[in-house]
Amino acid sequence: MQFAAFLFFTGLVAVIAFLSTRKTDEGTADGYFLGGRSLTGPVIAGSLLLTNLSTEQIVGLNGSAFEEGILVMAWETLAALAMVVTAIVLLPRYLKGGISTVPQFLEERYDKTTKTITSALFLSGYAIVLLPIVLYSGGLAIYTMFDIHTQLGISEMSALWLTVWCIGIAGSLYGVFGGLKAVAVSDSINAIGLLIGGLLIPVFGLLAIGEGSILEGINTLMQSNPDKFKALGGPKASVPFSTIFTGMMLVQLFYWGTNQAIIQRALAAKNLVEGQKGLLLAAFFKILGPLIVVLPGIIAWHMFGDELTNKDQAYPMLVSAVLPSYLIGFFAAVLFGAILSSFNSALNSSVTLFGLDIYKAYIKPEASERQVVRAGKTFGLALALIAMCIAPLISYVEDGLFKYLQEVNGCYSIPILTIIVVGYFTKYVPAIAAKIAIISGVVLYSISQFVLKPIVFKDGDYLHFLHVMAILFVFNVCLMLIIGAIKPRKEAFALAYSREVDISPWKGTIPAGLAISAMVLSIYFCFA
């Protein structure tokens, strides 16, 4: 019954996505990579939420909340502020330039080599970090919920390999062959199911704790675990309070404002109004994110405590324990959709980056649009296979899944953010400054986190990685400005209006942005 419900809902989403994309010409670059620049606000919001809210978030962040409590909500609530900044500051510039990828802007602002270095960084990050982690966390969740290793009489590692490859193959079909519109439509449908199903988990969990009463469950949970409801983390926490004012906001701004896998949804907007509405609608729902990705982890701590040796299994264990059996199949299908969303979104963005920024630029400049799309699909399949081989090996990582993901991402996130910020807000900083800064950022961060931290400061007395990110960001911005002062561009950079879409802003952008910011501050004030 559970598996039948899972197959039915998953198949239904696939059929709807297929029918919705039949009229989109996916043989063209705009049609395949940007859905024909036709996405509306609600579709953008749904796709943004589900692209972000996958199992590396649901499983990983709930695992962190299981151990540390509500303080890890910073990863969710502060994202809303970054989305407001993106809607007001960055998106108008992106759409004005009519770009398909963030590296395309870097070519216009700096040069072709800077674009290529950035594309290579994105692709390496997706292949080695993001795609494998999505597959691993998804496989862990699915085989735990369905108890696959017991049902099939195989080892847990074999069950993990099996589920990882099933997810990878299904995700490849969506992300590589369906194009962005298929990804976005399926995301929007699954987003509704995920919001409903995700909210049901804490509801049933609180009912179980409160013996049938949600209010009694909340009261019992907070009185029994007061340390889990302190939002301001200490110096040794995974998110110390001080990091909120340093690297945390930089990471959020990179993720929501410059990460190709995310911002590609807004780049596909039919106009600036729809893009801004989509970002701000997603920001509002992002504030509610801790109900789905933090609270269940605390409930799992109350119910299981030290019984769990792997904290990343807290969420799937809670689902199996509190959700009625007739709903497990539906929720597994929704969760499967979330897994596919993050996987195929990153994969589709990788196809976009390779096809437009590498194949068309270097391998075959005279290639037609259909040839570019075909080459991108072939690359996407190869990338998916690599990710499927790497994913199960992540089970040997000792740190929590979510912390590991954020720390490793720093190798490319802050260097890319640095050159984009300087590129947009200065006119004379030259291309050589961007090349030096991006290489400096990657090398210095790698030395800091993978040489100094584990070898020189192995006792643990070392700066938090978010502080390291902030220091390197400031250092490299200053480095670029100094180079720009010594050897400026001959001509000031001016962003040309491509007229691809209407860039008249939405009148409600500023009021909505202020309201969202006030809500975020209120949440922190309540749990301070």
CATH topology descriptor: Sodium/glucose cotransporter
Largest sheet: none
Number of helices: 23
Roughly what is the average pLDDT, rounded to an integer? 83
Low-confidence stretches: 24-35
Number of extended strands:
0
Distance between the termini: 45 Å
- The CATH class is identified as Mainly Alpha
What is the share of helical residues? over 70%
In short:
By secondary structure, the protein is an all-alpha fold.
What is the element layout, followed by pairings?
Elements: H1 2-20, H2 29-34, H3 41-52, H4 55-68, H5 74-97, H6 102-109, H7 112-145, H8 148-152, H9 156-177, H10 179-209, H11 214-224, H12 247-257, H13 260-267, H14 272-287, H15 290-293, H16 295-304, H17 314-322, H18 325-363, H19 369-390, H20 401-425, H21 431-456, H22 465-486, H23 509-527
Helix pairs in contact: 1-10, 1-18, 3-10, 3-13, 3-14, 3-18, 4-7, 4-16, 4-20, 5-12, 5-14, 5-23, 6-7, 7-9, 7-17, 7-18, 7-19, 7-20, 7-21, 9-10, 9-18, 9-19, 10-11, 10-16, 10-18, 12-20, 12-22, 13-18, 14-23, 16-17, 18-19, 20-21, 20-22, 21-22
